[in-house]
UniProtKB/TrEMBL annotation:
The keyword Lipid biosynthesis applies. It is found in: Cell membrane. Pfam families: DAGK_prokar. It comes from the Bacteria. Belongs to the bacterial diacylglycerol kinase family. It comes from Lacihabitans lacunae. This is Diacylglycerol kinase family protein.
Length: 120
């Protein structure tokens, strides 16, 4: 049997995590602006359902990777507050994961939107 109270409490914690991410992480605010712009462009240019799926996949992947990266950074900072070379590499690799998704999102957006922009 599903405990709905427990499930809704879990959603509450997840939404608190989103709030914390946007409030405290500068890169998350950059992702928020980029997400808003790409969604607005999607409506403006009337992109297809398939193009919306690509945009949704990349936007959600960038957000998820940013959340994971921020969580890893916070955990690393809590585990060792000194300049630890190994922890620094872990944090850099987590940031690289976000960069991979963000660059992929940028290329996908260019493939979807550049032909529409250039045809005007």
């Amino acid at each position: 049997m599903i405990d709905l109270r427990k499930m809704f409490r879990s959603f509450k914690f997840a939404f608190q995590g989103i709030y914390f991410l946007v409030k405290n992480e500068n890169n998350a605010r950059v992702h928020l602006l980029a997400s808003f712009l790409v969604v607005a462009a999607g409506f403006y240019y009337g992109i297809s359902a398939f193009e919306w799926l690509i945009i949704l996949l990349f936007v959600s992947s960038v957000w998820a990777s940013e959340a994971f990266n921020s969580a890893i950074e916070k955990l690393c900072d809590e585990v060792d507050r000194t300049q630890n070379r190994q922890i620094g590499m872990v944090k850099d690799m987590a940031a690289a994961g976000v960069l991979f998704f963000a660059l992929g999102a940028l290329v996908a957006a260019a493939i979807i939107f550049l032909p529409k922009i250039l045809s005007i």
